[in-house]
Write a structure and sequence with these properties.
The structure holds 2 protein chains of 2 kinds. Chain A is an all-alpha fold. Chain A contains 5 helices and no strands. Chain A starts with 7 loop residues before the first helix and ends with a helix. The chains are: A mainly alpha, B mainly alpha.
């Protein structure tokens, strides 16, 4: 749906549905914190960013020219072959046994915070630097052109 | 209450999660190959990242290891930063070329 719908706004809406489905899977897998963060980050932040960019560019009508039919057929065949190979390989793999005793509390905020700020403190701090540089870069990229055109 | 809750792997084997991740990844690849609109290509990349995240969470629940979920957290952070920078680059390109069609963006200069 995300790939095939002609109107870009529709594909954003379908993508939000897909993200909510994935968040439901996280809940089923006892990762409550990740489910909440996933909804906030993806459905909240990223999709708003996509939608506002689309509206900024006035692309919410079906103006996109499509690829030639040969390229489309090629894309479908390539993706289909990739899926075929992946599924065939995974079917051949040995079946994993069901795990014995499940600890159902690893996805809670308490547990995850301990691991995040204990073992993974350095990558955590590093991701904050990444965010800072991404923020500065985004502002810089969109700002420079404005002053040039003005 | 925690004792009453059943593990999902007694109902759904982990192979199903592997398959759904593979299918989601292939849909993302198809989107990248199929469309010309750069924004939709970005969305397909997000789809691929999410399929990998789903697999990481499934295996972290399977192995009782919280590191996988921490890793998913970092992947989300990188994806958010990537989308912010990528969309700002797209806005800049659109101001210059008035198009986000990737087949039009062949040259490195005007």
């Amino acid at each position: 749906m995300t790939v095939l719908s002609k109107n870009p706004v529709h594909s954003v809406i379908y993508l939000i549905g897909c993200f909510f489905a994935i968040a439901g899977h996280y809940l089923l897998l006892n990762a409550e914190f990740l489910a909440v963060v996933h909804i906030i980050v993806y459905a909240g932040a990223i999709m708003v960013l996509f939608l506002s960019t689309l509206m900024l560019m006035n692309l919410n009508d079906e103006t996109e020219q499509h690829k030639p039919a040969l390229a489309k057929i090629g894309a479908v065949i390539a993706a289909g072959l990739l899926m075929l190979v992946l599924v065939a390989v995974l079917k051949k793999a040995d079946a994993l046994p069901a795990p014995v005793n499940q600890d159902l509390s690893i996805g809670t905020i308490k547990n995850l915070g301990k691991v995040l700020l204990d073992e993974y403190l350095f990558p955590f701090e590093f991701s904050s630097v990444l965010f800072l540089s991404a923020m500065i870069g985004a502002v810089l990229l969109t700002k420079k052109e404005k002053s040039q055109t003005a | 209450m925690m004792n009453v809750m059943l593990s999902i792997f007694s109902v759904v084997p982990i192979q199903y999660y592997i398959f759904i991740s593979a299918v989601l990844f292939c849909i993302g690849v198809l989107g990248v190959l199929f469309r010309r609109n750069a924004i939709i290509i970005f969305m397909s990349v997000e789809l691929m990242l999410n399929s990998v995240n789903l697999l990481l969470v499934a295996f972290s629940a399977y192995h009782n290891d919280a590191s996988g979920q921490v890793f998913v957290f970092f992947v989300m952070a990188v994806a958010a930063a990537e989308v912010a920078v990528g969309l700002s680059i797209l806005v800049t390109i659109y101001r210059n070329v008035h198009s986000v069609d990737i087949d039009e963006l062949k040259s490195l200069k005007h």
